[in-house]
Specification:
The complex is a heterodimer of chains A (217) and B (259). With 217 residues, chain A is mostly helical. Chain A is built from eight helices and no strands. In chain A, helix 1 crosses helix 2 and helix 2 packs across helix 3. With 259 residues, chain B is an alpha/beta fold. Chain B has a domain of 175 residues: 3-Layer(aba) Sandwich (Rossmann fold). A six-stranded parallel β-sheet of chain B has the order 3-2-1-4-5-6, sandwiched between helices. The chains are: A mainly alpha (217), B alpha/beta (259). The interface between A and B is large, with 61 and 83 residues.
Chain lengths: 217, 259
């Protein structure tokens, strides 16, 4: 099979056929055989995702092993990865319910993830300072609205200044809500446009074949 | 048995009209009738950011945040981000900018590698590309510290934040701003748009992410589809006004919407 057929035509045909099947099933009552086929196709997503995870792990392990071998920049961090991977994967493969394996997950992976996630709070504060500076009248409106909503949300705000509650609710429900809805309508139309272009095979950069198309035309 | 699933008639009609309009404008483009399209400022900004990176001798980062392609709400912005990546990587290769694309999912990593590789090949610059360093797989969680650390050590001069962005929007953009990078941000996740708009030098919001993907494809039939999407906007405006009037007059439209 030619490279063009494998990389371009087959994925495009599969995308269009499976996509249309899903759309038809959503809008029209279908026989059980079609519904069952679609359920099977959707389960492929889980299988492909799992394969992608394995692929990613292999790529990462090869990269770090090479780095240790060639003593690339910051190669000592790669040793940490290789050792952590071998120990955790080894314990998991031997017995996924092993207490040491679970200990590693519960006491190392999970808290590190939570700690990293909590960084967001500090950066939000710093970002809020950057945003909430009244440099022009647009920023001033943003600052006033943000202060009203913040006051509304903190318990003491309503005690200090009761009108912030209805005012804050109004800002959230009307100007903010209307803006977001407009954005959601626009985004939905954008997704439909993208879908039509992909289904028609006109947009295929995501297949990594942008240049092949141009050369071929 | 009903011909159409109950409650989905209006949805089907909308889909047919909007998809039909998009196909109509694409067909018109084939026959040489191109609609007038406003040039998106972001197209120039991509080259401006990369040019700055070349002048300063520092890298540009292309970050996409969540790329779990098995999630439908993430898939569409990720595909749009890949389309812009194809253009950006090719511009980076042409201008000679150092380019770094960290990806947090195996499937997306493979696609991003392929896109960057082909972009450099198209510019005959494959000798300048070290693919395993330019496109890197970083498992979700480990990516934050790695990227922040390298933002500072590389002193990156430009960054693109495009795709489906969640809480990392604040973490990465704030660090990039402190490093002094010029930034272009764009997402369709409504709750993170404000952060990208506020912190990035340039931003594209919501639908513009998809429009930019079509615009940079440099294929007039693809960019013409944007005119078809505008038909959808006109319909939405008419329906909003009509619905507001009917509700103000005390007429219920619930029955119509649940058809």
């Amino acid at each position: 099979m030619s490279d063009r057929l494998v990389k371009m035509q087959i994925p495009m045909i599969l995308t269009a056929v499976i996509g249309l099947l899903m759309i038809i099933e959503f809008f029209f009552p279908m026989p059980a055989s079609v519904t069952s086929l679609n359920v099977t196709l959707r389960s492929f997503v889980t299988i492909i995702s799992a394969t992608a995870l394995i692929l990613g792990t292999i790529v990462l392990t090869i990269f770090h092993t090479k780095k240790v071998g060639t003593r690339g920049s910051e190669w000592y961090y790669s040793i940490v990865y290789v050792v952590a991977f071998v120990v955790t994967a080894g314990l998991g493969v031997l017995n996924v319910r092993d207490t040491t394996f679970l200990w590693i997950y519960n006491n190392m992976t999970s808290p590190i993830g939570a700690a990293l996630y909590s960084l967001t709070a500090f950066y939000i504060t710093s970002a809020a300072y950057r945003v909430l500076r009244a440099r022009n009248w647009n920023a001033a409106v943003l600052l006033v609205c943000a202060l009203v909503v913040l006051l509304m949300l903190i318990p003491i705000g309503a005690i200090l200044f009761p009108p912030v509650v209805p005012l804050g609710e109004w800002i959230r429900s009307f100007p903010s809500g209307a803006g977001f809805r407009g954005m959601i309508i626009g985004t939905s139309l954008g997704i439909m446009g993208l879908g039509v272009r992909v289904f028609m095979g006109r947009q295929k950069e995501h297949l990594g074949i942008r240049e092949e198309r141009r050369d071929s035309e | 048995m009903a011909l159409i699933v109950e409650g989905r008639v209006i949805g089907l009609l909308s889909l047919l009209i909007i998809a039909g309009s998009i196909i109509y404008y694409m067909q018109r483009a084939y026959s040489g009738k191109l609609p007038k399209l406003r040039r998106l400022a972001a197209v120039n900004q991509i080259d401006e950011i990369l040019g700055r990176c070349v002048e300063m001798g520092r890298p540009a980062y292309y970050l996409m945040d969540t790329v779990t392609m098995d999630n439908p709400s993430v898939l569409a912005p990720t595909v749009a981000a890949f389309q812009i990546l194809a253009y950006t990587a090719r511009s980076a290769a042409r201008l000679g900018a150092r380019f770094f694309v960290p990806v947090t999912q195996g499937l997306a990593y493979t696609i991003a590698s392929e896109i960057v590789d082909e972009a450099y090949k198209a510019e005959n610059k494959q000798d300048e590309l070290k693919l395993d360093e330019a496109v890197m797989y970083l498992p979700d969680g480990a990516d934050r510290m790695y990227i922040i650390n390298h933002m500072w050590s590389d002193g990156m001069a430009g960054a693109f934040f495009l795709g489906s962005w969640y809480h990392k929007a604040v973490i990465f953009t704030e660090n990039a701003a402190r490093v002094g990078a010029m930034m272009l941000g764009g997402t369709d996740t409504t709750h993170n748009i404000p952060f990208l708009v506020a912190i990035c030098d340039y931003s594209i919001i919501g639908e513009e992410l998809y429009a930019l993907g079509a615009y940079v494809s440099e294929d007039p039939t693809v960019s013409s589809s944007l005119a078809g999407q505008d038909v959808g906007k006109f319909i939405a405006v008419i329906l909003i006004v009509l619905g507001s009037v009917l509700i103000t007059l005390g007429m219920s439209i619930k029955g119509l919407l649940s058809m």
